[in-house]
Design a protein that fits this description.
The chain is an alpha/beta fold. The protein has helices at about 5, 20-25, 45-50, 70-75, 90-100, 150-160, 175-185, 210-215; strands at about 35, 60, 80-85, 105-110, 130, 165-170, 190-195, 225-230. Helices cover about 30% and strands about 15% of the residues. The protein has a single domain, classed as Vaccinia Virus protein VP39 (Rossmann fold, 3-Layer(aba) Sandwich). The chain starts with a helix and ends with a strand. Mean pLDDT is about 95; it is low at about 1-5. The chain has an eight-stranded mixed beta sheet with strand order 1-4-3-2-5-6-8-7, sandwiched between helices. It is globular, with a radius of gyration of 17 Å. Helix 4 links the parallel strand 2 and strand 3 (about 80-85). The structure holds S-adenosylmethionine. S-adenosylmethionine binds next to strand 3 and helix 8.
Length: about 230
């Protein structure tokens, strides 16, 4: 499959046999979670959608999985807006359901390929970005599918306000070794990084995600980097 084709995703509304999660996205949760067509309406207008002041921080989590971190962060920071992106329907619905059960009105989920994040936000619209345990694409021939690429970093840098951070963590040493040189060559300032998050200065403020807990149980280290748009 070509890179261009890989980036495209099929339209939710055209699915011939929508499963329970697709139905939930188009029905019960449609005010809180958007398909890949609806989410395009909010570019440059997210704060209006939430009816908040223009200075309200707007954060993004990429690949929320089952939404443990997404719901926790939305609940912990009610004065910030949190958008989550997912490709898959089940984790998308798990994430928004978990946030709403915690009574979070400051969170929305969208089905979208994060590689194309420029479709969703205008320059300077975003504050902090969280990328936790992105798919590792472990074989060398698959590395080109990894989210962290120079172009992706340039794109998210443009979309963020000055003073915002990117938090990246992974259980894959290979992915970390791949990503760190890109971080260092990117327009970001690398505030810090570690090959063992849970025995580092960053441990105290860390939230353990679902994937992270799986690797911690096996005694494996978590690799972490924090970037700043100065
Ligand atoms: C390995 S899981 C990690 C989930 C969660 N962040 C955690 O730490 O438990 C990666 C998630 O990212 C989603 N994902 C992968 N590629 C994506 C992309 N290009 N855009 C949006 N979501 C993506 C997958 O569907 C999956 O749910």
């Amino acid at each position: 499959m070509s890179r261009g084709a890989q980036k495209q995703i099929f339209k939710t509304r055209q699915l011939p046999n929508p499963n329970e999660y697709v139905q939930a996205l188009l029905g019960e949760f449609s005010a809180w979670a958007y398909d890949e067509e609806k989410i395009l309406e909010f570019k440059g207008k997210w704060r209006q959608e939430f009816q908040v002041l223009p200075e309200t921080p707007l954060d993004l989590e990429i690949g929320t999985g089952n939404g443990f971190h997404f719901a926790w962060r939305a609940g912990q920071y009610p004065d910030r807006i949190l958008i989550g992106l997912e490709l898959k329907y089940k984790p998308l619905i798990q994430s928004i359901r978990r946030a709403l059960r915690s009574d979070c009105k400051n969170a929305r989920m969208g089905r979208y390929n994060a590689v194309l994040v420029k479709d969703l936000f205008v320059p300077g619209e975003l504050n902090d970005i969280y990328i936790h345990h992105p798919d590792p694409w472990a074989k060398t021939s698959q590395n080109k599918h990894r989210l962290i690429q120079p172009e992706f970093l340039k794109n998210i840098f443009e979309l963020q306000k000055s003073g915002s951070i990117v938090e990246f963590k992974t259980d894959s040493e290979d992915y970390f070794d791949w990503a760190l040189p890109f971080f260092e060559k990117s327009p970001y300032h690398v505030i810090g990084w570690t090959r063992d998050l849970h025995h580092s200065e960053f441990a105290a403020t860390n939230f353990v995600t679902q994937f992270e807990s799986l690797f911690l149980r096996k005694g494996q280290p978590i690799y972490y980097a924090k970037l700043l748009k100065q």
